[in-house]
Design goal:
The complex is a heterotrimer of chains A (126), B (576) and C (448). With 126 residues, chain A is of the alpha+beta class. Chain A is built from 3 helices and 10 strands; from the N terminus they run E-E-E-H-E-E-E-E-E-H-E-E-H. Chain C is 37% helix and 13% strand. Chain C has helices at 8-18, 48-61, 83-89, 92-95, 107-124, 136-151, 164-174, 194-200, 222-229, 316-319, 332-369, 393-402, 432-447; strands spanning 69-70, 128-129, 155-159, 180-184, 205-211, 235-239, 258-262, 278-282, 295-299, 305-309, 385-389, 405-406, 409-410, 421-425. In chain C, strand 3 (155-159), helix 7 and strand 4 form a beta-alpha-beta unit. The chains are: A alpha+beta (126), B alpha/beta (576), C alpha/beta (448).
């Protein structure tokens, strides 16, 4: 998780120039339990920061996933439809959810670095 | 006497002898005393011995009893093993097969006769593209069908065979007479479009049931159309919506407690309302300050169940009603939890304007694996004109369909409701009568409180106060030791008990929601309590055994993750 | 007191454990202003015998349908039910269980529902079915709501020839939402005016819903209507009679997206119109928008086949206000009845029940048409019921009723354009004599 940024609703972001890859953190997946389904957004749709863009379902809960940054979805990980367990097994790699064309890079300033996020999770767990 | 000096003067000697005698007397007295005390002690010993004997005897009795029970248990264990082995061998044989895999190449079943009228071929009447080319449904012999469904029925827990303390569902005993009566030919062999004069008995059942429900609930009129609690809710909230629409007020929000049944917000959303959640306070009741901060001119209604889903009575209900009414909103009663109140108080008195009642819960109609039920809707004066039609009226001893509500929301289904269920509920109320209903209510509360008191040492009780018909525990302590509410629920199956409702209400972590109902005996409750205590001890002794449970059911723990990830929702052997 | 097992001694012990002296103490926290001051006034209760006496009187006040020569249908059909069905269905381990939340101790129910879902898919030609809804009319309303969620549109097109009770139910269900319902009229043949449909449908429509056989019993050209609908983004929704599907093309093969209807014809009995059940099936692509319970097949820990409720995240107890519907329960017992009915009847039996009904109805049509004064508004493209026209129909019905014949259901109050029409139905239970009696008596009634 080195080099990743985190939101306080437990999404991670990897920045590559003006493209951001977004997924949910290892902590988030462990809280959800076995993921059985993910509702993905349409490619080409735009979202504001903190708006809901996907829903992840386990057998007993449905959780909304929020945009850590504003932007346009340029690619969704459609393989997750048939392999929802990747969110559990490999949340930072195969379990990525969307790639985003970043609208406003300054929004990254409000996100946490991995160390800060680790502290944040520890606090939330207690 | 040799000891005495003969020369001594007689006087002295006499004196000595006297002294001696005194001494002896004294000694004797002391001896006597000692003897007495020994006697006493002996007596005490004897009685102690007697007591010991008694204890011993009881001990022996208990030992025997225990041995008996041990024997019984090992017998049962043996039986279970045998059953499980039998089950296994069953599984190895054919009985895991679906009905589609049992098809035989049989001739026609002959349940019906070929008519005497000329036989007509649909091909002569319809274009080919509107007719089906094959009907690949299986053909079976009658015995095969009977055996298939008889076997299926054995793989279920039911109220008739198991304690079923499923919170919020009121799984009380369903008297058999009600089934018999609702199945009378006069009640089932009638067509809903027959003329009214030929179905007077049916209309009278509906009319009379309405009268009884009005008395029990303190409301003014009822429609029997809604066929489930959820449909009753939809009906009530649509009436509220229409009332506000007609009076030209833009009221668009509905207030719902965080402890509410999931149907409440889902229903409000189906009616196009916006939802505001009111938090519960530390006592598990609606937080009045919070409620005051939410209400506004936009408030169309508040939906509430009382007792709430924690099994607690909302003591401030009168204040809540005032707060909502002051803003021109309606108070909606989710009648799922009416059972403990019958004969003590009612929604009308509490200030509710509209309410649905689950006849399959409070009025004991069997749940039928999930339905049919009935979620009839009752209203106070203000909303009568909005009820779905038809209602049933009475004029000069003739019963008729009443279409008078001028602002009726319309209808929620075909015809008049789940009539067979209405007959059962009517029979139940008649049979129990005044005192019977109150007795049912008070016993449901007594049973729940007994469980609460006995189990609160073992499980966390988030709100420790007198509960009504159900009690909600948290398994968070057990969770810390490795067993979740789910694990505990599954282990209960091995004890022949249907698990309580799990993980609801949402505001209690690892919740187990227990509703024993009034028809269970203290012995059953004691068995349930002991079983849960045993499971709690087992967490420290053999956690894996709990995690692997249930052991005695037809199948082992079911893989729900696989079911959801790879939905297999129909048999694809035939036709594909 | 009936049905209470606790003895006085039990109650005393339990009160002792709670540290209180009377049961009333358990209600002491209820404010006294809320306590009932007077008795309910509902009577003292009855013995079982007394209750039976009372209810029998009411049951006998009803005149059962077998006392008449009845041709009533219109959404509730008097078909023969194999004797074994009642026997199997009275099994109290079906009757007194609840929703199979706990899969391990509910395998029988779950398997039965899975088999039901499979039957519905076979009959309708659809890919997925739920575990049933309350009745056909509310299932139809749910089907339209489903199409609104899928299409994210809110203009509903509905054929005018669907069962009026279904239409009213739909209007009620939609009354809180921002949407519109437009009727597509029927033509001179009693079938959907396809040209009108063609003009009405556009990308703003969420669906076009039709019933086939429609309320007049006529089989619609659903293949043509779906062809028209497919030109837009709207969905095709069909209400149907499941028994008619023994003869008619699977709606799935006609291009339907959602199919629904009432299960009553499948062994449901009359029961004064309820309970029955509503079925709802769709294409797999719409599975996540399908409301109601769904049963899936999976495995247990030992890898044996097993069943459980699945895809619960669509439902109210998890998604709350974002759920697909507020519905929780299904009509399991009625669904099990239908599954047993289908198992007993099998392919041949089902074809017979449908085919014999069809032949009987066609015979009645032919004979009644010959009666002077009777006019047939539409042709013979119907399944088991049709409408016929006569002057002063209510008086005619009444005169026939005097002779113990219920000739059908008067639809003049439901359809302006059919003020003088009666809807008559035949099932396989009708004999040639029954039909001849109706026709002969009708001739007498009309012409003395």
């Amino acid at each position: 998780m080195k080099g990743l940024l985190f939101s306080n609703s437990h999404e991670w972001v990897k920045i590559d120039h003006d493209i951001a890859t977004v997924g949910i953190s290892d902590y988030a997946q462990s809280q959800l339990g076995d993921v059985v389904f993910i509702e993905l957004p349409q490619e080409g749709s735009s979202f504001d920061k903190n708006s809901q863009f996907a829903t992840i379902e386990s057998t007993k809960t449905a959780s909304e996933v929020y945009m850590p940054l504003s932007g346009e979805v340029i690619k969704v990980n459609s393989e997750l439809t048939n392999n929802p367990q990747w969110i559990n097994n490999d949340p930072y790699d195969k379990g990525w959810i969307v790639k985003l064309k970043i609208k406003n890079i300054s929004e990254t300033e409000s996100l946490m670095k991995d160390d800060a996020y680790k502290d944040f999770v520890e606090k939330e767990a207690h | 006497m040799d000891d005495y000096d003969i020369k001594e003067p007689l006087e002295d000697r006499l004196q000595k002898i006297r002294l001696e005698e005194e001494h002896i007397k004294e000694q004797r007295r002391i001896l006597q005393l000692q003897e007495n005390s020994i006697k006493e002690e002996r007596q005490e010993l004897v009685s102690e011995q007697e007591m010991l004997d008694q204890v011993m005897e009881e001990f022996k009795k208990k030992e025997l009893l225990l041995k008996d029970r041990e024997k019984e248990l090992s017998l049962r264990q043996g039986l279970l093993d045998k059953r499980s082995k039998q089950a296994q061998s069953f599984k190895d044989r054919e009985d895991f097969r679906l009905i589609f895999e049992k098809s035989r190449d049989l001739h026609q079943a002959h349940y019906i006769d070929r008519p005497e009228v000329p036989s007509k071929d649909p091909n002569d009447f319809f274009a080919k593209n509107l007719l089906r080319s094959s009907l690949p449904i299986p053909t079976l012999g009658e015995l095969q069908v009977v055996r298939h469904f008889s076997l299926l029925s054995e793989r279920n827990f039911s109220v008739d065979s198991n304690f079923y303390p499923l919170g919020s569902c009121t799984m009380k005993y369903n008297p058999k007479i009600n089934d018999e009566l609702s199945d009378l030919s006069g009640f089932i062999d009638i067509h809903p479009l027959q003329c009214q004069q030929d179905v007077q008995g049916a209309l009278q059942v509906i009319f009379n049931l309405e009268q009884l429900l009005c008395r029990i609930t303190g409301l003014k009129r009822f429609s029997m159309q809604p066929s489930s609690g959820a449909q009753g809710e939809l009906c009530g909230m649509l009436m509220i919506k229409k009332f506000h629409q007609i009076s030209g007020k833009k009221k668009n929000t509905v207030i719902i407690p965080d402890s509410a049944h999931g149907t409440n917000p889902a229903t409000a959303a189906m009616c196009g309302f916006k939802i505001q959640i009111v938090k519960s306070n530390s006592k598990g009741l609606v937080d009045l300050d919070y409620l005051n901060s939410l209400v506004s001119e936009d408030t169309a209604a508040m939906m509430l169940t009382n007792p709430n889903t924690l099994g607690l009575f909302e003591e401030n209900i009168t204040e809540i009603a005032e707060i909502i009414h002051k803003k021109g909103g309606f108070l909606y009663y989710d009648g799922a939890n009416l059972n403990p109140l019958m004969g003590f108080t009612n929604p009308g008195l509490m200030g509710f304007d509209v309410a649905h009642f689950n006849l399959h819960k409070t009025f004991s109609t069997p749940h039928g694996c999930g339905g049919p039920g009935a979620g009839v809707i009752g209203v106070g004066e203000k909303l009568i004109d909005f009820l779905p039609v038809p209602l049933v009226g009475k004029k000069e001893n003739i019963f008729y369909f009443d279409y008078s509500p001028c602002n009726s929301i319309g209808r929620l289904r075909s015809f008049y409701g789940n009539f067979s269920i209405l007959v059962r509920a009517y029979a139940y109320i008649l049979r129990l009568g005044e005192r019977g209903l109150a007795r049912a209510a008070s016993n449901s509360v007594l049973n729940a409180n007994y469980i609460k008191e006995k189990l609160k040492k073992t499980f966390d009780l988030p709100y420790d106060k007198t509960c009504m018909h159900e009690v909600v525990f948290s398994c968070s302590r057990q969770r810390e030791r490795g067993a979740s509410a789910l694990d505990i629920a599954k282990r209960l199956i091995d004890y022949g008990i249907h698990p309580p409702t799990m993980y609801f209400p949402l505001i209690v972590k690892e919740a187990l929601m227990i509703e024993p109902t009034e028809t269970e005996s203290k012995q059953t409750l004691d068995y349930f309590i002991k079983s849960l205590e045993k499971i709690d001890r087992e967490i420290d002794q053999d956690l894996q055994n709990i995690k692997d449970s249930p052991h005695t059911s037809w199948v082992k723990r079911v893989d729900e993750v696989k079911a959801a990830r790879f939905p297999d929702l129909r048999c694809k052997i035939i036709g594909d | 007191m009936p049905y209470i097992l606790n003895t006085e001694k039990d109650v005393k012990e339990m009160l002792g454990c709670l540290g209180i002296s009377s049961v009333e103490d358990l209600f002491s926290h209820i404010p006294s202003s809320l306590k009932l001051k007077e008795p309910l006034g509902i009577g003292p209760g009855l013995s079982e015998l007394g209750l039976k006496r009372e209810l029998k009187v009411l049951a006998e006040k009803n005149k059962t349908i077998d006392k008449f020569n009845s041709f009533l249908g219109a959404g509730c059909y008097d078909h023969y039910i194999p004797a074994g069905l009642k026997y199997l269905l009275s099994n109290s381990k079906f009757v007194t269980a609840y929703t199979p939340y706990q899969a391990e101790c509910s395998q029988g129910i779950l398997q039965a529902i899975y088999e039901y879902q499979s039957y519905i898919c076979l009959l309708t030609g659809m890919e997925v079915s739920n575990a049933s809804l309350l009745d056909g009319a509310s299932a139809f309303a749910e089907a339209v709501l489903m199409s609104m969620r899928i299409s994210k549109k809110s203009r509903v097109l509905v054929s005018a020839s669907i069962n009026p009770q279904y239409r009213k139910t739909l209007e009620t269900y939609l009354s809180g939402l921002d949407c519109s319902v437009e009727l597509i009229p029927f033509d001179k043949d009693g079938l959907i005016d396809l040209a009108f449909l063609s003009r009405s449908v556009d990308d703003g429509a969420c669906c076009f819903a039709l019933q086939s056989p429609n309320y007049f019993g006529l089989v619609e050209d659903a293949a043509e209507s779906t062809r028209i609908i497919k030109k837009s983004s709207a969905l095709s929704v069909m209400i149907t009679n499941p028994l008619s599907l023994a003869i008619f093309k699977e709606p799935g093969l006609l291009g339907m997206d959602i199919v629904c209807g009432d299960g009553q014809p499948l062994g449901g009995g009359l029961r004064f119109g309820g309970p029955s059940f509503g079925f709802l099936a769709s294409r797999e692509a719409y599975l996540r928008q399908l409301p109601g319970r769904i049963v899936g097949r999976t495995v247990d820990k030992d890898n044996n086949p097993a069943f459980c409720l699945t895809l619960a995240t669509r439902e109210q107890h998890i998604k709350r206000e974002k759920a697909t519907s507020n519905i929780c329960s299904n009509q399991s017992l009625n669904v099990i009845a239908a599954t047993i009915y289908l198992a007993f009847m099998g392919e041949a039996g089902l074809k017979d029940a449908a085919g014999y009904s069809f032949s009987n109805a066609q015979y009645l049509y032919k004979r009644i048409k010959e009666v002077r004064g009777v006019n047939m508004p539409y042709g013979q493209g119907f399944f088991n019921e049709f409408i016929w026209e006569v002057k002063d129909p209510e008086a005619v019905l009444n005169k026939l009723y005097q002779k113990n014949i219920i000739a059908g259901h008067y639809i003049g109050n439901e359809f302006e354009e059919h003020k003088n029409c009666i809807l008559s139905c035949c099932t396989e239970k009708k004999t040639k004599k029954d039909i001849d009696d109706l026709v002969n008596t009708l001739a007498e009634v009309l012409h003395g």
